[in-house]
Each structure stands twice: as structure tokens, then as C-alpha cells.
Amino acid sequence: SETGVIIVGDGASAELSPVYKLYVTYEAILVNLVGFFTLFFQCQLQSREDIFQENHPNVPQMVTDTIFGHYWLKDDLNCSTRAGQCLSYMVCGWLMIAGLLQVFINFDDLRRRIFPSDLDCPRGIKIVCMYCYFACDWYWVVLMLQYRDTIAWQQIVGSAIDILLRLPFAAKPSRMFVDNNAYTTTTKTIGQPEDEERTLIHVGRPQASNPSEIRMRE
Length: 218
Fold this sequence. Notes:
Blueprint: E1 2-7, H1 18-40, H2 42-55, H3 61-67, H4 82-106, H5 108-114, H6 123-146, H7 153-171, E2 182-190, E3 196-203, E4 214-217
Antiparallel strand pairs: 1-2, 1-4, 2-3
Helix pairs in contact: 1-4, 1-7, 2-3, 4-6, 6-7
């Protein structure tokens, strides 16, 4: 029988490094999920905060804002007009989409629970995803500078922390992955009643000059 060894692309591993996996989890939960719920229910939270302040006048405003998720615009700007409420819900939609993309692009095992026949996302898609969020970071910086008289301090501090945490990965995307020297080969036995196929992960760069080379042997 003949055996074909197929080297797929440069094949470097797309498995996330523990530190980047932790960062993605942090961002998906504390930025996207918490951000979505605090903004979606911002008006209700502000009403509860007003009641709390009436009953506890000695608690500083900064503390009550933090407790009741007043993380977005100053005062009641999110809720004082119908237009403000509409724009808040629009941003909620963006936060939801951003969180879902972040999770389902980066966590292959989780995505395959819903789509069992799916393959791992390539490194390139995960890197593009990271840079899209990085570009969004700086778009957010411009907004905070232009509208610093309306954006709450919690939003500014939280965004600054998130940007600083992403910087090491933007500067060197290889930090996102657990092994930058792994590649995949698929070995298939030809000519049997049922072809046998096996996929292996190897450490080190493939030796073939052409990454897509197929080698056949007896």
C-alpha cells in the first residue's frame, strides 16, 4: 500500500496560550457580558441607585455608581432622552456581537459543541479578530477624548486597562498561541477497503521546501 503525508500550510498551531485564553475569558465576561447587561438595564439600575442614595445618603456617589453599574455616560445621559436610550441599545447589540465573535472564534472546543463537524479556526482568523478589537480600542480612545465631558470615569479606566492588557499580543501575535513551531500532517493509507486516515501534531517546522508538498512512498 502507499502512504501519503500531507503538510497543510505552514500549519503552526492555532491553540491559544494559557495567558491569552485567560485574557479572552476576562474580556468576554467583564467587558462584553457585564457591559451588555449594565448598559441594557442602565435606566433600571439608575432608578435603583436613586432609591439607594435616598436611603443611604452617606455612601459616596463613586461607590454607588460602581455598585449599580453606572459605567457608561455621566449622570442620566443614557436615559434622559429617548434618543439616548436608543443609542444605548444599539451599543448593547454591538457588545453582544463582539462577545459572541470573541468566544466562538477563539474557543474551538466550545464552538464544536454547537457545530460538531466544524474545524479549528486558523491562526490567521484569530489574529485578525484580535487586531479588529485592537483597532476598536483606539476608536474608543478617540471617542473618550472627544466626549470626555460626558463619558463616566469607570468607562475610561476600564477601557485603559483593557487596552494595556491587549498591547502585548498586538505587538507580538505569537504570544497568543501555545506553540508557534507545531504543524499538522495527515497520513492516509491508500488502497484499503476503507482508507485509514490519521492526523498528527508535530513540534518543529516541516522540512519540505513547499509547505503543501505531498510525499508518496511504498
